[in-house]
Amino acid sequence: MLRIIKHKIILLACGTLISVSTFAQQNLKLTYSKPAENWNEALPIGNGRLGAMVFGGAVQEHLQLNEETIWAGEPGNNVPKNTFDSIQKVRRLINESQFEKAQDLTNKTYPRMAPKDLNYGMPYQTMGDLYLDFKGHENFTNYQRTLDIEKAISTVSYEVNGVTFKRETLSSFADNVIMIKLTSSKKGSLNFNINASTPHKINSIFIEKNQLVINGTSGSVDNKIGKINFKTVAFPVLKGGKLTSTKDQLQISGADEVAIYVSIATNFKKYNDLSGNPDVRVSEYLSKALSKKYDTELKAHISNYQKYFKRVSLDLGKTEHSNKTTDIRIQEFGNSQDPDLVALYFQFGRYLLISSSQQGTQPANLQGIWNYQLNPAWDSKYTVNINTEMNYWPAENTNLSEMHEPLFDMIQDLSVTGQESAKEMYKARGWNMHHNTDLWRITGIVDGGFYGMWPMGGAWLTQHVWNHYLYTGDREFLKKNYDALKGCALFYLDVLQQDPSKKYLVVSPSMSPENKYFKNVSITAGTTMDNQLVFDVFNNFINASKILNQDQSLSKDVKLALSKLPPMQIGQHGQLQEWLTDMDRTDDKHRHISHLYGLFPSGQISPFRNPDLTEAAKKSMTYRGDKSTGWSMGWKVNWWARLLDGNRAFKLISDQLTPAPMENKGQSGGTYPNLLDAHPPFQIDGNFGCTSGIAEMLLQSYDGYIYLLPALPDALPSGSVKGLKARGGFEIDMDWKNSKLTKLVVKSSLGGNARIRVAKNLNLKSKTTFISAKGTNNNEYYQVDMIKTPLKSAKAELKGFAVPETETFDFKTEKGGVYSFEVK
Ligand code: FUC
Question: What is the pTM of this model?
Fold first, then answer.
């Protein structure tokens, strides 16, 4: 109430003629007028390690709780033994074009269900649920529920019999606990019980020293025994009133204020070390948090969070829709003008990354850290044939570089565990993995040969290492991760096979992720995505070894192999070929369009440098269509941005911001009321993919230059963004009006030449001297790895890819320099 009154006064003082909103200042808030009725309406909070979904009921508050290391199973890899001979046979069958036989043998060698002595990865599991039951709150009014993503706090408020009850819930970025603060407008009116449940088979719930305790052990699946022991404690601190208890409930009566501290810990230390002590850890976290005043803790939480969150602001303009509740805005988005929801969705993606991936924690899995099940969809593990990578697409360009670190830690682990699969399955040096991993860093086949025979997971993950280096210029980081890059290159050096017809070097056997080219046949050699991935792996190694002055002779071998990779090919339908032979179907609507990896996230296809390939990529996109699973649409936003088609990219954002279907499976994605992405079911990659896509529409930094507003849609004619990152350590602020850049500020953290591409005839003015760009950019972070000239089918009809009229200019920057440009 107070806030609304304040808001009114401000409005009167400014004389602004906008109507008073029910929720003041809600641009960075998700807002709702009723409690969550299901998980897809509850609101996620997290500090990287501890997650909760807050339901916000008036009669009952429900917190579904997660701790990121509660996974089924125990340490150990899942590498199948004695299958090398079979792989050799499959290679021979592929060379003889006996593809069905190759598939049969692959399926037989790696069956769909995990053999007795193996496993196909472990599920990430919920801890359980905490409930606060309020007496006499059935008739509540003036209900409001929010998630403030500027402060990382979820709030609930409502009135009962003239008394206002408020709650705020957060997962502390200052100390490792979840905190719930309850207040009311009338002294002594807080009366409620605290109780808990957990679905784990092995568990005990009891009261000990005024604390509610939940002990448990994670599940056993396939050949693995559940060995994660966890302990959760809920500890209420009362102001006024009285605390009593039953065997498994805490009862609070007549309190003025209550702060509940929830501490969760496990025995997990590392993928191969479970020697942690949950009892000791739980008490340590708790006593540290309790040693501070609640308000001090709250302040520290907000400031630790904002250190990251506030680096980027995005204003796309507000309309009357900004004042509606989030669920309604999603329902209406397709038929309304609500650019502010796009900005909220973008910032929500950043919020989710900060909340699910902090330094020293596990990387964000398929559901980030939020999962209510013991057996969630696809185990809520790490699927690395797109999903895990997509989670981290917004890490660098939206200025959250530190949030990328858990992924690098995981790559370090995999570069060790993956040596077993490289050696045992392929008799190769280095390391590799297939399309999945989990807490235990498995690297073997998952889900059988049809889906799992894809030895490319490491190839894709290591792109993140190289890109982090390009954004930050951090040589120490490159040194630390050099062995992972080298081990990945070594693996492909040993694994590549000569293709009998054209003598190219190709990965065999493999597939174009999860797609098939004939009946039930996915297995083949030399798919376009594999070729593109190996191209990047080899170039990363060659570049890193040069920068760090290491392994020059190995680098020569890698260069030779690089020169024998197949070029990209434009097929008979004018499409970018997915497979080595021209067998793409124009009616193929598969969610994976893996061969467009070369367009995004890789930068091998550029509209300015390779218009034919770009046109072919566009044709492939057009044949596939728009609507698909959440992550697939998220990828498409990025692709259309790279194809410089802002309106089509915006159309995909619209598709993504469609209310998600209630079905729990299928190929038709969208957005749930809580703004989380639906595969369906909930899968977080779509949120991150779309966030990255929005950044990519505003700024691109590959292909030798920084391109400003490359794919601005008509729906976003005016706006401003601050703090986006470009490769080479540049930070960019921009304003635009009538779809044209009006203001630009470039901050340089590494120095070096800045090459900028903008729309033609902008007439930019600056105190900085800038000149029209000529030749190659001499900035070391903008070197382009040259691709081979693509092959083109005689049947392909290409009309030419029209690029917008642009100009490029250069200016010198110093470390720490700030350079401003304006259109007068
Ligand atoms: C890949 C995708 C599915 C799903 C799963 C987690 O297998 O093909 O659509 O996203 O990962």
Answer: 0.96
